[in-house]
Design goal:
The complex is a heterodimer of chains A (318) and B (239).
Chain A lengths: L1 H29 L2 H27 L6 H15 L5 H23 L4 H27 L4 E2 L5 H24 L1 H11 L1 H6 L4 H27 L1 E2 L1 H4 L3 H13 L6 H19 L4 H15 L7 H15 L4
Antiparallel strand pairs in A: 1-2
Helix pairs in contact in A: 1-6, 2-6, 2-7, 2-9, 2-11, 2-12, 3-4, 3-5, 3-9, 3-11, 4-9, 6-7, 6-9, 11-12, 12-13
Chain B lengths: L1 E12 L2 E12 L3 E5 L6 H9 L6 E6 L2 E2 L5 H7 L1 E3 L12 H11 L7 H15 L14 H13 L5 E5 L7 H16 L3 E5 L3 H7 L2 E6 L2 E6 L1 H6 L1 H8 L2
Parallel strand pairs in B: 3-8, 3-9, 6-7, 7-8
Antiparallel strand pairs in B: 1-2, 1-4, 4-5, 9-10
Helix pairs in contact in B: 3-4, 3-5, 4-5
The chains are: A mainly alpha (318), B alpha/beta (239).
Chain lengths: 318, 239
């Protein structure tokens, strides 16, 4: 009885996800242009939050570098958009962010705790200022125009990036490396002592997660059509990714998805309805989450379940 | 023939020599005890052997390979496993998963996750934890967490196992069970080098005992020799 119930419950997630993806794939056929644009930016946040959680979730290394890899993607699109087809631009953006993350990871993933966090904040600033310096010195302008792409194409590519990311995360979580990453997060020294080659594993997964951030940046840049280093390397992208993932819950596959969808939608609604108080309301929601939902939204499910069982036990007849 | 051999192994923390010119040897199939008062450098010596620390000078050889300063995961893959004094299980992972990780990453030959899981089940049975395989490690009682660490170390298929105070904090019944476990591991042909404060255990299961004090080796010999050594008694009880 119990097991049949749990298998049914465990099927709900994949079925809902499959339905959601089908709905999303057909969205441009029936939805308004506004909806497509709104959903594109929600998907962008889902990509950022999920790719952040791919590495930081199991290992517990809090990286505030997503903005650096996202910005790399944006600048790849700005620099190469005119020179080659869109698909190549996006692939190169992913590759560029991968290489940057590989380098950064190899240098810094031996840093622990707060030192790593501070370094990743510094990294975003560093790259922003290097790009700024380059633009001012060599091109003489601060910003760049990006070749625009129509909304439906942006949407479809973002969805494709998300699907690849979901697949990668799922396979990683199921594989031996998912288990090893988790053991690193639990106790790095003990993990090394049972044969896990800690540093290369951390570095590679960190770099793989950056691919998706870079690709997402490249396609978003085509929608913004004008970028400068302050737009591209905005640390808010890092903070949002982290907040959404933590809000949703890091322990579960669906956590970052739920968090990103909820917060991105909330942000959009609040901006349009309460333009003057939106940051205030937003802040209150976040503080409340951290105080009362330490396991994130997905942490609620088991709590609710046990609450229901307790009620049922208390009133056996009803 | 020594399976593990150290020559003039030295480690300083600041000005303090935690381990100072210590020579030691462990033979294949032996159970060797390492004793000494608190702060004598026992755990530091284990950390030097397992690769958690690099010695300042001296050599450590394991199965003819120099392992001083080699990374812990490589030492582990060579067949040297350990447990920790303050338990270091993976707290939020199930007992099975704790052992499974070790089985998956410590071998030269890759095994599948399913195979690793089967080995985890076997090893949990070996250490007496069959009933709690799916329980998160943090929810196990201390003696069981220690057994889990032993199972995890065994999953790496070690030739030599370092046990760091397996019996500290256990009651007499649990100590007896732990001693039985040590004997069972030895009977599997695994060499054991163990730090222990529980004298009854050390005297009963060890072939040979090494005594450290202030980072130096002050005595070595059979349990009888150590128990009757005037110097050792002085170190432990004062004059």
């Amino acid at each position: 009885m119990r097991t049949r119930q749990t298998t049914l419950i465990s099927l709900i997630g994949p079925v809902l996800l499959g339905l959601a993806l089908l709905l999303l794939a057909s969205l441009p056929l029936y939805a308004s242009a506004y909806t497509v644009i709104l959903v594109t930016s929600i998907l962008m946040y889902v990509v950022l939050a999920m790719s952040w959680a791919m590495f930081s979730g199991p290992t517990g290394y809090i990286s505030l570098a997503p903005a650096a890899f996202f910005g790399m993607g944006i600048y790849t699109a700005a620099a190469l958009g005119l020179k080659m087809p869109l698909a190549y631009v996006i692939l190169l953006a992913g590759l560029g962010s991968f290489c940057l993350a590989l380098l950064v990871g190899a240098l810094t993933l031996r840093l622990k705790g707060i030192y790593f966090v501070i370094f990743t904040i510094g990294l975003v600033e560093l790259i922003k200022n290097v790009v700024l310096w380059y633009e001012v010195t060599f091109t003489g302008t601060r910003g760049r125009f990006v070749v625009p792409v129509d909304n439906n194409t942006v949407y479809n590519i973002m969805l494709a990036i998300l699907v690849l990311l979901l697949l990668t995360t799922y396979l990683l979580r199921r594989s031996r490396f998912g288990l090893a990453l988790q053991s690193i997060g639990e106790d790095e020294l003990a993990a090394a002592h049972v044969g896990v080659n800690v540093n290369p594993l951390k570095t590679i997964v960190f770099a793989v997660s950056a691919i998706f951030m870079g690709a997402a940046g490249a396609i978003m840049a085509t929608r913004w059509s004008y970028v400068d280093p302050y737009i591209a390397f905005n640390p808010l992208f890092s903070f949002m990714a982290v907040l959404m993932a933590i809000f949703g819950g890091l322990g579960r596959f669906y956590g970052p998805i739920l968090g990103a969808v909820f917060i991105a939608y909330l942000e959009e609604t609040l901006i349009t309805r309460f333009p003057y108080h939106y940051m205030l309301i937003f802040g209150i929601v976040l503080v409340a989450t951290i105080l009362y939902l330490p396991g994130g939204v997905v942490g609620l499910a088991p709590k609710l379940r046990s609450w229901f069982t307790r009620r049922r036990r208390a009133h056996p007849g009803g | 023939m020594h399976i593990l051999e150290g020559n003039a192994v030295t480690k300083r923390f600041g000005g303090l020599a935690a381990v100072s010119a210590v020579d030691f040897g462990v033979d294949r199939g032996e159970v060797v005890g390492l004793i000494g008062p608190n702060g004598a450098g026992k755990t530091t010596l284990f950390n030097l052997i397992s690769g958690a620390l690099t010695p300042d000078s001296g050599t450590i050889r394991f199965q003819e390979h120099d392992i001083a300063g080699v990374k812990p995961h490589l030492i582990c893959r060579r067949g040297l496993a350990r447990t920790f004094q303050s338990v270091r299980v993976f707290p939020h992972m199930s007992a099975h998963a704790n052992v499974q990780v070790a089985a998956l990453f410590s071998r030269a030959d890759r095994i599948s996750t399913a195979e690793a899981y089967r080995e985890a089940v076997e090893l949990l049975e070996f250490v007496g934890l069959s009933d709690v395989g799916e329980v998160p490690a943090k929810d196990l009682k201390l003696p069981n967490q220690k057994r889990l660490e032993v199972a995890r170390a065994m999953a790496t298929r070690p030739e030599l196992l370092l046990l760091d105070e397996l019996m500290a904090g256990l009651n007499p019944t649990e100590v007896a069970q732990a001693m039985e476990l040590v004997t069972k591991i030895r009977d599997r042909g695994i060499t054991i080098f163990m730090i222990e404060h529980v004298m009854k255990a050390i005297m009963n299961v060890c072939n040979r005992i090494i005594v450290l004090n202030y980072g130096e080796k002050i005595a070595e010999g059979s349990p009888q020799e150590i128990a009757t050594s005037k110097m050792v008694v002085e170190v432990y009880l004062g004059e």
